[in-house]
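question for whoever is on the cluster today: can someone run the full assembly for these? two chains, 594 residues total. i dont have access anymore since they changed the login thing
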Amino acid sequence: MIKVIRKTALYAFLTIVAVASVFPLWFMLVGATNTTQDVLSSRLWFGSNLLRNLRDLTGVQDLTGALWNSTVNAVTATVLALIVCSIAGYGFEVFHSRGKDRVMSILLLAMMIPFSATMIPLFRMFSTMGLGNTTLAVILPAVSTPFMILLFRQSSRSFPHEILEAARIDGLNEMTIFFRIFIPTMRSTYAAAAVIIFMNAWNAFLWPKVILTSNASQTMPMLVSNLVAGYVTNYGVLMLAVLIASLPTMIIFLVLQRSFANGITGAIK
Amino acid sequence: MTITALTRPDTTAEPAPGDSPARTHRARRQPSRMRVERRRSLTGWAFLAPAALLIAWLNFWPMIQAFVLSLKTGKGARLNFAEPLWSNYARLLKDDLFRTTLGNTAIYLVIQVPIMLIMALILATILNSKHLRWKSLWRTAIFLPCAVSLVSYSLVFRTLFATDGFVNDVLMGMHLTDHAINWLGQPGTARFVIILGLLWRWTGYNMVFYLAALQNLDYSTFEAARIDGAGPVKTFFYVTVPQLKPMIVLTAIMSTNGTLQLFDESYNLTGGGPANASMSMSHYLYRIAFQNNPNVGYASALSYAILIMVAILALLQMKVGDKRD
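^ ran it for u. tokens below:
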């Protein structure tokens, strides 16, 4: 009897947590298809205002431009960060030495430097270099992060040494071993890292807002934020913009979820 | 994946894109007598050089520059060292708005981080149990908020908690209140909404880390505790928590760091309002550094205050993590 009650309580608790987690997303999804009045009167089912909201949104903001900018920024950042951090993590683990350990612990200190503390000099530096409003300036600070290097170093531990030795005996050079053997073997770590980097890059707000000052280089989060800057907010349009800004990261997460979980689990062994 | 396309089928000395310049200098094709060990060590350095140089250039160097800037005053490009040098810091101590934002950030930190980490731990423990059904459904639902950007969820919460919004409709429908609550218009409730938002967005994120750590633990420790007659609560405190301590310290440091730099929520959810009552330190920093009349020197001093707080709290947490072993 107690067991049944305990079980029911457990599932009830999980249901409440899950509903609370998903509800704001549902609200956003149906809100995108409703008028601003319907959103405010808490209509929780789909309406027929989707196309109208889309027309109003593209009327006031350059939606395709922002989507394009966000995509370029996030994809470039992800590819560069994956290469730079994974090769470094691999280097630390496979070519392990005391000197490299010391470098690693210095790099880990960078984890404690809040971005707020480097933002102003970075802005001044990139501006003097004439890099304001460029993709490079937006993504560079996100390319090499101690957290990602650590993730790849940890997961390199599970990379079998026999494969490495065999490849060396076969005469493959270190670069080839890394690209042709390590990367394919560590697919789930790469997937997990890619999910994290892409999400962070796609969702970044403060730094893009600081370094991108022209309207043409605006990203999705900046577009969404601008929608509430006026006096009157059209909530249907706002929910649609929020939905569009969230779809790419949500789809990527749902598709790569399994490898994501495996990658994280493998990395923190 | 895109990266595999960068691989070259041949093994000539041509450097691949993303390769470090250091490696091209390495005379790999020469029949040198260099010992294999030494060559490998150099390869290792070349592998980690791009990442290390980027961190030095974009983290450590600006950190030093920020300190120099924090000693300067002036507008625009004409910056001079302040007289006395520490005057920006002295001004910070007397700044009422800085105290308000510091207090707000402290409230967010002290209330939200512990609740979030405990919730995440409990959820991870539940999801790790072998007998639970629909595991991946629960996990997906609880993690899904993390896929939404901070700006997006801030605006969804802002809509939900609008005076004529969903939350008030529900509360009035249930007769819990007879008038609409102005959630974002009062200091206490505005801060409450931000805390609620943070909990919603980050609990699942931390849960994933705990879950991953739990899955690496030996499940037999839990079985043993059960056989010894320990209930779920005892097992949680005496078996789960001690084994997860490194991960708890890591997540605590990450959350502290994140909360001290809170910006998106303050800027988008409440706009820092009402009357700056819910503004975070980073939001204030942004305002001084980039809005109206930018004061780079003073903003840098504030940024250093944040840096010092992050460092102290991280050290404290690591100390606590080391003890009790």
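summary bc i know u wont read the tokens: The two ends of chain B are 43 Å apart (CA to CA). Confidence is low (pLDDT under 50) at residues 1-24 of chain B.
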